Amino acid sequence: MTITETRGVWLTTTDSQVLLSQENIAQAMNFLAETGFNVVFPVVWTKGATLYPSQVMQQTFGIEIDPQYTRRDPIAEVVEAARRVGLKVIPWFEYGFASSYNSNGGILLAKKPEWAALDSQGNLLKKNGFEWLNALDREVQDFMLNLVLEVVKNYDVDGIQGDDRLPALPSEGGYDQNTIELYRQQFEQNPPQNPKDTQWLQWRADILTEFWARLYHEVKAVNSHLLVSIAPNIHDWAFKEYLQDSPTWLERKVVDMIHPQIYRRNFSDYKNIVDRLVNEQFTDVTLPKLAPGILMKVGSYRISPDYLVQIIEYNRACGINGEVFFFYEGLREDNYTLAQVLRTGPYAQSAVFPSLSALNQPSTAARKSKVKSQKSKVFPQERR
Q: Residue limits of the Glycosyl hydrolase-like domain (predicted)?
């Protein structure tokens, strides 16, 4: 009997060779299918450039594609190779509203300085190394929406994915003149200098939510079967730090699948966060949409086989039918150790990717009750 669950992995350009050739892509898709995966999330927007020939980027910035992929179309190649082995493809807009990383705004803000997000001192908004576009600005939002629509109209994909930068803006932002004026019109005063002021946080988060709702409905207008996925940071840290209001997204039904980045390196911390999400944020109606983001590899870190299996088993015990791993290369290290663990263990039985109807089918209270009585601890902050 075939089961239904999400078995996903992110494909990056950082620390990975997969997207550098059509041959590498084909080998990776074959490998993922053989390991038991059923969906791949390839990056299509990163470091101020697309990984496909983009007329939106050409017209706006004079750059059709990331220069290292000139005369190729990596996303078309991923779709072709994935389809051949039965994998779903959901392009991932990794950089979202970030313009650059430690590059003073990069190419985007060099061409469009009026698109810069500003902090309370009037400086270019920068947080954890990333410089930001003004996600509250309608013109910037239209640009991002047009990138997304370009992908869903031109490629045979199964959906699109936002993340901790889409929709998002560091809460230190919003002090450009246009945003200040909009706030003043509504409240007859300037925005608070304290970026964590409750009303100021919610007001800006609401603007991002409205943008995401518009994006959701425009994607569905192209094809109602497309899945709108998102991988935000964890609530409510994400709300206070990046204006990401994921409970409202779920309440307003503008997300089909959500992958909170539970990037914890020990089971106790992971369990605490899952318990809190399942008990406090997700209901029986929304639980099927949850497939946590799991940190498989970053830098020198790689998840242990025992911890990997423990996470998957706990997810299933909580009624969580799936996960997405960051990122692909972790499966290949140490002679494919983690891939072998999955192939012979949790992913030994084949699984189909959930349909939209399955994602909207309420979970049973009995499955959730397994964690209802557990008390969650306050968890450490994300540091992406």
A: 6-289
Classify residue 101 as exposed, middle or buried by CB count within 10 Å of its CB (0-12, 13-18, 19+).
Answer: middle
CA distance 94 to 345: 30
| Interatomic CA distance for residues 230 and 313, integer angstroms | 23
Question: Which residues of the chain, if any, have pLDDT below 70?
Answer: 364-384
The model carries a pTM of 0.94
Separation in Å, CA 156 to CA 47, 213, 310: 24, 23, 35
End-to-end Cα spacing for the chain: 39
Encoded tokens for 274? 């899952």
Q: How far is CA 321 from CA 146, 186, 202, in A?
A: 32, 43, 31
Helix axis angle, 305-317 to 333-344, nearest 10°? 30
Q: What does DSSP assign to residue 112?
A: -
Residues near 308 by beta carbon (within 8 Å), at least 6 away in sequence? 294, 296, 338, 341, 342
